[in-house]
Amino acid sequence: MVKSSADLVVYVVDDDSSVRSGLARLMRSAGHRTMTFDCSEALLAQAAQGAVGCVVLDISMPGLNGLQVKERLTQAAAGIPVIALSARDDDETRRLARALGARFFFRKPVDDQALLDAIDWVTGNGGSAAPSAAPLR
Fold first, then answer.
1. 19-41 in b/e burial notation, b at 16+ Cβ within 10 A?
2. How far apart are alpha carbons 73 and 80 in whole angstroms?
3. What pLDDT score was predicted for residue 66?
4. pTM to 2 decimals?
5. Which residues, 6 or more positions from 64, have their beta carbon under 8 angstroms from its beta carbon?
6. HSE-up of 73 (CA within 13 Å, CB side)?
7. Candidates 3.90.1300.10, 3.40.50.2300, 3.30.1340.10, 3.30.230.10; correct CATH number of 9-123?
8. 3-state class (DSSP) for residue 73
9. Which of 48, 30, 59, 38 shows the shortest CA–CA distance to 117?
10. What pLDDT digit, counting tens, does each position of 18-33 carry?
11. Where are the domains of the chain?
């Protein structure tokens, strides 16, 4: 559990620069520190130095697939929760999100408050209030 939102870093990984910058602004407006990455490999290089918070991950990007990212994140930053994003919302994409252990799955464009609620929920930073989105099952 993260002690406060000041301790929390939201790691945003998306190959679309406008999505990255929009999510970074959203995180800052909610008082979260954020680090953005245009590829999973860049995230993994940083996470190896010790990650505290959660990862908001576009699971439909070139390069490493979601399962490879999750496997390497588990090795580098055991237990860091992942929230999956994708422009696609089909059975295959949801299956991938479940397989990588994502705690939540959101289709882009994502509802800002639902994403913030999910981040607070997975980091334990939001008290006992339930998120406005259902966990991925």
1. bbebbbebbeebebbbbbbbbbe
2. 8
3. 67
4. 0.84
5. 39, 40, 41, 44, 72
6. 28
7. 3.40.50.2300
8. helix
9. 30
10. 999 999 999 999 999 9
11. 9-123
Q: Kindly report the CA angle at 127 between 95 and 10, in degrees rounded to 5?
A: 55
Q: Could you count the other beta carbons within 10 Å of the beta carbon of residue 92? A: 8
As given in the structure block, the two tokens for residue 33 are 């520190």
3-class secondary structure, 11 = strand
Q: Which amino acid is located at 62 in the chain? A: P
Interatomic CA distance for residues 125 and 37, integer angstroms: 23
Dihedral sign, Cα of residue 101, residue 19, residue 7, residue 124: negative
